[in-house]
Amino acid sequence: MRRTAVESLGKIGDPATALAVIPLIDDPNPMVRNAAAKAVGRTGSGTIPEVVPHLIRALEDTEAEVRLAAAEALGELEPPLEFLGPLVSLLSSHRREVRRAASYALIPLDLSSRSEQLAGAMHDPDPDVRQAIVAVLGEADAKEAALRIREVALHDPQPAVRIEAIYRLRHLDDEETRPVLKRIAETDRAEEVRRWARSEKGSRHGID
Q1: Domain-terminating residue out of 73, 89, 109
Q2: Which pLDDT score is estimated for 144?
Q3: Considering 61, 91, 109, which residue would you say is the last residue of a domain?
Q4: Residue 89 CB neighbours (<10 A)
């Protein structure tokens, strides 16, 4: 019953409903928590101060679907940087699933001023986290970010992460990147990675 009510409120997308839905992000029923996280993501930027702390906490939920719903909701709301300190700090969590949820939540956000803080996550033992952070830095379009992404494209042990880095580098398309892509096209140990480096244009790989 609570889940159905929350889903109905979420479809309305009225910011006035956010305050009523927020407590349900902590509901004992994971299906209700999932529906509540999705609902508040549709309530608009006017609810950010009230909603964002609850969604960030939901990234540590024990249920994967709730963590994903919270990450997607944060992406929809696109909160300003002053609300994101706790979210970035979750990249240091001892729980892999929390780091993964936090990294996914960061992808749609402009974090060009926080590239230094994100650098450590590029060495995360989980390749999904590393791939997401490459996507985040790729959106930053900053010279420092390009340097870090080139290092990933050359040295990350996971082909999918190297391909993500190549995709992001192609969109940066600076003079320092071209010789790196040429080197990868000639020497990378994975044929798929070499093919991506040779490609003039590629569709987005992996995370979007």
Answers
A1: 109
A2: 75
A3: 109
A4: 12
